[in-house]
């Protein structure tokens, strides 16, 4: 099974980055490449099946999507590798660490999904911070409600950065993504498994993330005995674009632990 891939020219250890649901490898690179610049890591950005430029070459289930990523890792990298992901990509990365720990040296999980079903998530109860008037005026009408819930750093500049990332990359397969998102196989079958991953982990969440929250991620830290947990104020579900400097600082700590 083939996946569309972008790689850096660095010759160091590999970090493989997985995207948010419906996002592309270009959007993932926009989120993570500034964080990894100058680290000497060989960065790899994947389009998941049915996303960006990758064909929908598997069943529309999260297990099949994850198995496709694992098969690519088996063929193309010297395991174990560092895995980074945001949102759905972080959900898959955590799943790989449970099912194929031989592939994973460490995990960077940014705004990770813990449970797929929205009704099962613990979301922030406080109102988000104030925003300047008209901060969402340049967003498409159909995205304004989503961004209003998702963003904690609520400025026109952040909105513009997020929109540019979401619009980048290949077209994807809308039918496949819809079948995946609405099907019974959207949750990984071992989502609730009580399995420990012993590698270095950094879980970074947004205090105002109205999509996946931050409390469930804290409770999941029992699975990561070498894990660091951070909740960032003035950040939501698009934390890499809302607080890039802080993300880079937190990532440096994770890389230090992963290399020692």
In terms of topology, how is this protein built?
Layout (H helix, E strand, L loop, with lengths): L4 E3 L6 E5 L6 H12 L5 E5 L15 H15 L4 E6 L1 H12 L4 E7 L30 H10 L5 H11 L7 H9 L18 E6 L8 H5 L7 E6 L6 H4 L1 H15 L2
Parallel strand pairs: 2-3, 2-4, 4-5, 5-6, 6-7
Antiparallel strand pairs: 1-3
Helix pairs in contact: 1-9, 2-3
Which features would summarize this protein structure in a list?
Rossmann fold; 260 residues; alpha/beta; globular
Number of helices: 9
Tell me, what's the shape? globular
Q: Please describe the biggest sheet, giving its number of strands, its sense, and whether it closes into a barrel.
A: 7 strands, mixed
Rg of Cα set = 17 Å
The count of domains is 1
Low-confidence stretches: none
CATH architecture: 3-Layer(aba) Sandwich
The residue-averaged pLDDT reads 95
SS-based class? alpha/beta
SSE series: EEHEHEHEHHHEHEHH
Q: Largest beta sheet: what is the strand line-up?
A: 1-3-2-4-5-6-7
**Percent of residues in beta strands:** 5-15%
What is the CATH first-level class name?
Alpha Beta
